[in-house]
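Many introductory courses stop at the sequence. We go one step further.
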Amino acid sequence: NKWFSPLVAVDIVIFTVYNWELCVLINKPHLTNGVYTLPWSIVPKWQSLEESFDMILKEQTWISWVYKEQLFTFSDPKRDPRAHVFSVSYYALVSFEKFQNEVDLTKIDIVKFKDIDNIEFWYDHKIIIKKADERLNFRLETTNIVKELMPQIFRFSQLQKMYELITLKEFDKRNFQKKVLSLWIIHETWKLDK
């Protein structure tokens, strides 16, 4: 029947920073014949995309809340050989402290973004991860979302290091400080880091 409705899935790219490396949280491969997957699910009947996102986050990672943005809809009819499945993808940011306190490490692996090409992923999940990285880099230039990866109190040098490790660019210290201060997104705590 040519009018058969495609299934809709939600796929989530969750970024965190561990040991000053940009990392991605992925499902352990024991359920998919040794192939890694992003946290994902087919959207159940009568459930919204937002509800599906929350369900996947809780059931597959045990993380209760993350910063999230809808990324892209992947609609190639051949992206999943088992059925016609659209993927509404999201990317999410979680600070390592929150990740460490909440994640279920029996379900999730943490991998360095730079190692993604060396890992075998399910269908187009590697493409989704790379698209999410592109969006994250773009959003870093136009918003203050980097705060979702930072501790509440940090040194200016740590903020610069965070930008550099995500964008893979080096910034001049004075120019970086001038740019960030002009955005009015951080303020001085007058505390010393001992």
